[in-house]
Amino acid sequence: MFNPYLFSAIFYLFIALLMAFDLALVNWGVLPGYSGVAWLRVHFITLGFVSQAVFGALPLLQAARHGAPRPRSRLDIWALLNAGIVILLVGIPIVNKALIFTGGTLVFIAAIMLAVQLRGIARAGQAQAQKDWPRRFYGVGVLFLLVGVIIGTGYWLGWSAPLRITAPIEAHVHANNWGFLSMVFAGILISLAPDLLHRPLASEKTIRIIFWGMVLGALGLVSGPWWGGARSIPISVTGLIIHLIITGVLVAVTWQAFRAAGKLNVGAWHLLLAYLWFFMPMLMAPIVVFHLGSIPGERIEGVAPQALIYGWAMQFGLAIVPYFIGRYLLKKENPQLGGSKWSLALVNAGAALIWLGIFLKPYDAALWGVAYALLGLAALDVVQRQWRDLDRA
Length: 393
Description:
By secondary structure, the protein is mostly helical. The chain is built from 13 helices and no strands.
């Protein structure tokens, strides 16, 4: 069955790797840099690669879980999402308010339509799970995405003051990462475990704890920068601690499940090591919040999201997207997670060098140049492998 989302995901990943190579050349002084392009590169991964994979995969996972017929690709949702993404990718660098509003609105509508589609699939299924935890993860994740879209779009349109958002960029990033992506990634791990490992990822009690812990942690991390001021610090810190602990539990049960099934392969290590770069900015949060150490908090805030998105979000996608392509496009009997020893080494070395550049300011340009070159090569390795498989099919 044709799934435009998966093809779009590979396309955006290809663009993201080109942008990574471009950023390497900028840091080496070969090409000039332009304001606004740094966030554009990040959005090629979040709005582009990862969102395409999520919007394409969730209906398929939901149908499989509920015994419903495999849903046809909703080209209306795909068109709205991609039109919104393209308009945002044009509007953000040039700070065009009309384009940003239009693009944000289209993505918002597409997210609502996805939520409605997932609910419809669950109702149409023959196997009505009493405790459909993945759908709860997906549903809450989409709600955080909607909040992130409102905050992000409103930042450019002057909505922050009426909405009383003290730190809109921080709240936007937290809603998208600690809310949307964290919840959806956890739901995907839970959904894939029976097929990949022939066993549940964890007990229902553990999954319930993970769900509510992530919800509370994300609420604290979004509410803190929204309200701002001294009163917000306890809220943010509490949310941070809860999210750290609960995500640690998720990683631990994932490692245990893959190990018990004898499936600790390259793809599994992509998933597990991705969370190392998820933890890094959270562990550095005290430096930013309480101004500890000699490293300026602004420097960490400005650069750490790059390592987070490339090291965590992109790396997670490098493992998951090839699995969905193998299962739903190539009809493989035993699809596996994506990645290779090369991509595993390259993407993690690249993320490590981004962090190293934060602390070694005199050498940051050289380190970041190498980092983005390695990240581009990691993405290229996965893209060429998927292209080769599709070409053979």
